[in-house]
Amino acid sequence: MSMTELRNSKTDLFNIASMLTNEELEVRDTVAEFVDRRVRPNIAKWFDEATLPMELIPEMAELGLFGMHIDGYGCGGRSAVEYGIAMQEMEAGDSGLRTVISVQGSLAMTAIAKNGSEEQKQTWLPKMAAGEVIGCFGLTEPTAGSDPSSMTTHAKLVDGEWVLNGSKRWIGLATVAQVAIIWAKVSVADAKAAGVHPDGDTRPDDELVVRGFIVPTETVGFRAEAIEQKMSMRASLQCDIVMDNAHLPVDAILPHNPGLRGPFSCLNEARYGIAWGALGAARDSIEVALEYASTRMQFGKPLTAYQLTQKKLADMTIALNKGQLMALQLGRANNAGTMDLHQISMAKLDNVRVAIEIARECRTILGGNGITGDYSPLRHANNLESVRTYEGTDEVHTLIVGQKLTGQAAFS
């Protein structure tokens, strides 16, 4: 029985597939076939060797996965639900490989699409959609994670050029990217001089505002280095970036949406994709555990014949289906333009922590064999520890939901 058949007949207890359109099912099956053919046979080796398989980049682009939710500029213009389904199928293969699509599309490309000029969009988005240019997104810093307002990276306008200084950490794809979106603090005076300060904004000239910059990674003074000895996300790249007097032309700045709403709009796209993606890892873990338990004989019968194993499988599959229903409802609201920020936080928070619990429980069904690369649940669990932290920790998303409930901001 193929993974696709198993998925449809076993884990979809609530018949969620019947709630999907033909177009959505086509996206599901196309990405699932790619994962079955290109990812599953190789992912244990890539994870063990801490290798990002760059040969998959053009294949992902050919499938239309880069910026698939962006309209125009060579992008797919797919619906939010179609994008979410693609992320679920991709993360069923590996969270790190799903992150490649998220960094490229939800972060770097979305930053340009939402905050860039028409010229910037025309210059970069078609090449990024085609996989000819890889992007990265530099917001997080060594001491500025959950509180990006405390970033110290800054840009100054000197003799008609921007000069960037600072550092970023945990930046996906930075060592293989050709372009980086870097967020830095800029004075209002310099923004005015560059012609990008909003009309009617009366903030004082010496106030610092977060702005985005398009930085070719070949820029002198820009340096990226891969973070090594990771125990999670080993089949992807996370990097440190240092900018030491990196000079950029005046038009390198993203002209729209100054302040944190610029990067946050991108983070929300990534968080939305995670709410779907994490469930792919959870579903794959259940499928693997179910298949293993059906053939693993103990005391004269398969593990699936034991009540405790059935309880584990039943509880996990019910939790999976609930998460999938929440993701689908979130996607429908996204398509309709009615999605609220606290709903993204609810789905990212709960679906990721549920996915981790499922992956860990599935490992117990596999016994000692579950710690090897032959089976996916422990790899998924390790990866999901990173997913749980990035694009907003549990604490941050809990406080977003708490603020919605109480009307009180309790972040500090």
From TrEMBL:
Residues 259-405 form the Acyl-CoA dehydrogenase/oxidase C-terminal domain. It catalyses: glutaryl-CoA + oxidized [electron-transfer flavoprotein] + 2 H(+) = (2E)-butenoyl-CoA + reduced [electron-transfer flavoprotein] + CO2. This is glutaryl-CoA dehydrogenase (ETF). SUPFAM superfamilies: Acyl-CoA dehydrogenase C-terminal domain-like, Acyl-CoA dehydrogenase NM domain-like. Pathway: Amino-acid metabolism; lysine degradation; Amino-acid metabolism; tryptophan metabolism. Its cofactor is FAD. Residues 21-132 form the Acyl-CoA dehydrogenase/oxidase N-terminal domain. Keywords: FAD, Flavoprotein, Oxidoreductase, Transit peptide. Belongs to the acyl-CoA dehydrogenase family. It is an enzyme of class 1 (oxidoreductase). InterPro entries: Acyl-CoA_DH_CS, Acyl-CoA_Oxase/DH_mid-dom, Acyl-CoA_Oxase/DH_mid-dom_sf, AcylCo_DH-like_C, AcylCo_DH/oxidase_C, AcylCoA_DH/ox_N, AcylCoA_DH/ox_N_sf, AcylCoA_DH/oxidase_NM_dom_sf. Coiled coil: none annotated. GO terms for biological process: fatty acid beta-oxidation using acyl-CoA dehydrogenase; fatty-acyl-CoA biosynthetic process. Residues 136-245 form the Acyl-CoA oxidase/dehydrogenase middle domain. Pfam families: Acyl-CoA_dh_1, Acyl-CoA_dh_M, Acyl-CoA_dh_N. GO terms for molecular function: fatty-acyl-CoA binding; flavin adenine dinucleotide binding; glutaryl-CoA dehydrogenase activity. Its EC number is 1.3.8.6. It comes from the Bacteria.
